[in-house]
Amino acid sequence: MKSLIGPDVTRRTFLVSSSTAVAATMVPGAAHGAPAAAAAAPSMTTTSIEVNGKTHRLELDTRVTLLDALREHLHLTGTKKGCDHGQCGACTVLVNGRRVNACLTLAVMHDGDRITTIEGLGTPAELHPMQAAFVKHDGFQCGYCTPGQICSAVGALDEIKRGVPSHASASLTSIPVVTADELRERMSGNICRCGAYSNIIEAITEVAEGKA
């Protein structure tokens, strides 16, 4: 069989030329000499949000999540990034008093909203009753989930106080009763890898009984 590689074309140069030709066909437009499409520029907008009682005006990419706005732009790192898919609850904050997974919502959607993070509930010198109860009952081990757990617990008790039923509620029309089953259902979106669930329920129950 006659070789296709002549005296001026070595096997190495032939293979390099062939690979380059194949790669070129895999780039859109390259085969026609068109330049590759430039990456789209980010769409920026100004968003005003109130965080822990202080108003912030932020120039943000419209794709920035509320979680990243809090952590990366305002440096409030108490709100944790866990799964970043809304499954672990570590990023739970209160938006206008209601629980929200900050990783699942865009910051620009909250223009004018009132955000409360773990830093806004209390201080080391003056703890929120829920923070104090978590400390008293050792409702944490590694502590990574704790900010989200506490924000979620505060929101859950407020839901009960407002009469919002859950799947564990006995009635859809009467005010829910604070029971362990009720709290487990309402806190089921917050995962604790260390397994401090029983202590967390005890802490929330104590705050509920104190009508905090």
Topology:
Elements: H1 11-26, E1 44-51, E2 54-61, H2 66-73, E3 92-95, E4 98-101, E5 114-116, H3 118-121, H4 129-136, H5 146-161, H6 180-186, H7 197-209
Would you summarize the structure shown here?
With 212 residues, this protein is α+β, with helices and mostly antiparallel strands. The protein is 34% helix and 13% strand. The longest helix has 16 residues, at 11-26.
Explained architecture:
With 212 residues, this protein is an alpha+beta fold. 34% of the residues lie in helices and 13% in strands. It is built from 7 helices and 5 strands, in the order αββαβββααααα. A hairpin with a 2-residue loop joins strand 3 and strand 4. Helix 4 crosses helix 7. The longest helix is centred in the N-terminal third of the chain and has 16 residues. The chain is globular and about 55 Å long.
Global Rg? 27 Å
Mean pLDDT: 88
**Percent helix among the residues?**
25-40%
The count of strands amounts to 5
Strand/helix succession: HEEHEEEHHHHH
* Strand order, largest beta sheet: 2-1-5-3-4
Helix/strand-derived category reads alpha+beta
